[in-house]
Design brief:
The chain is of the alpha/beta class. The chain is 26% helix and 17% strand. It contains 14 helices and 23 strands. A hairpin with a 4-residue loop joins strand 9 and strand 10. Helix 2 packs parallel to helix 13, helix 8 runs parallel beside helix 10 and helix 11 runs antiparallel to helix 12. It starts with a strand and ends in a 21-residue tail after the last helix.
Amino acid sequence: MASNHVIFIHPDGTSPAHFTMARLVTGGPDSRLNWDNLSESRIYLGHMEDQLTGTSNGGAVTHATGVKVYAESFGFELVRDENGNPVIDEATGRPVETDLTALSGKNQTIMQEAVAANKATALINSGVIAEPGSGAFAAKVGQGDVPDGAQGFAAFPRGQFAEITRQVVESGIDVILGGGLVNYLPAGTEPPAGAVYAQSAAQLDAISTASNIRPSINLIELAKSLGYTIVYTEEQLKAAAADPTVLKVLGIFANEDTFNDNIPTPQANLRGVEENLIATNTPAYVPTAPTVGEMLKAAQTILERNPKFANGSFTVLEEEGTDNFGNINNAAGTLEALIRTDEAIGVAKEFYAKYPNTLIITAADSDAGGLQIDDTGTTVGNFRTNPTGLNLPDFPDFQNPGDGQRGVGTAAFVAKPSASGNSYTFGAAWAGTPDFAGAIVTKAHGLNADKLPATIDNTDIYRVMYETLFGEDLPDRPVPQAIPAPAPTKETGNVIFFHPDGTSPSIYGFARFVSQGPDGRLNYDLMSNSGVYWGT
């Protein structure tokens, strides 16, 4: 069995346009992010078994098992009748599910297999640890776990945060870092003294007392009984990382997420858009919480001294702020989340420099908000939409408001100077608030990174991670594969330059869906190499 290392980074909801915004602000148009400098780039196709746009939970299950699942899956598969339709339980009205077998042939996620193989493991999230991008690697919940009569978020398997958190605590993963104090404590429980961000049991109960959110037992006490050192702040995490006797750590860094896409007030919850954050003097992130980069650095320090590290290691890290801020069209919050993501990629590259038998791989499952950027004046105005010219009262002509540094119609973002010394201002535009299939690019670096197909399916994330961790090359999904170009016979030759003006992976996705279907491949997909183009 291989003794290699894998770091999977899930910058949820991001596209090349998102990273362009971070690049412009942090270094300018001629700079390069850590994300840019990962050696391999691939177009990512993320459709589900039953829809074109990936879901957080379904996408995570696919990354964790290598299997296409239905959109609401959190570790289970649907039972279907002879016509391929979901079987519905007559008593509950819910779909009937069955156990999911991973591409490896086991009823385990890749993280669960890594734990069973005695590899050092870490699970990290800037959101609650039950967030699917991390939680689905360590837990599974199904339609049968949904409480009777549940409404809203609680009516979905992915909404069972208390049960998911319990399974994460019992998973055997060595380092678990994220938010979600409310998911560890039964209703009415006073917060631990070290949780400086939590004021009282009443404050936690005001967030929720529902059974899908609050567990029936104290999961922090359970974690202590399993040998975990519990930390609640950045400083406490650093202290644990500096203590050579500490091998298992559970970090809980916020009441809910470590970012504030939701602002609780005595009157009601407010969306964490720029204007509301400013009006309530609420920071985008909890000040005492570590960034995901700081979490990763501490986790790797702890894993490196673990005797299991000699068998290899597996780390899953998700920055959820990129998705949640994107989904409410908060450009400033999204930017901060992107910078934190890139910091974590830098930490992963430092680890790779020490251990070249490491694969770093990144993937989003969808494009949050469909972010685009454009040049603007000092104040961001509106972005003109294409008027229909028709008298359609349900779809009137309109203009999209643009986001600046402090929200809609405010001072523009300012890029660092270009190599020529020019400075530019720009605004952010959004296609909407949901997740889109979008223009998603996977980046990879290190061991086996070059084995990714030219256009990758979401199942390929699992496949390359599995080969690196366990030394087994699993069968490819039966979709068209690129044929590598023959080796050149001369130093110079023929050139054919195509200029499909104005296109992006999203536009080719549109063409693929219509002409080939989601599992088909365009000629564009079957070219042997790919990269990310910056046209600034």
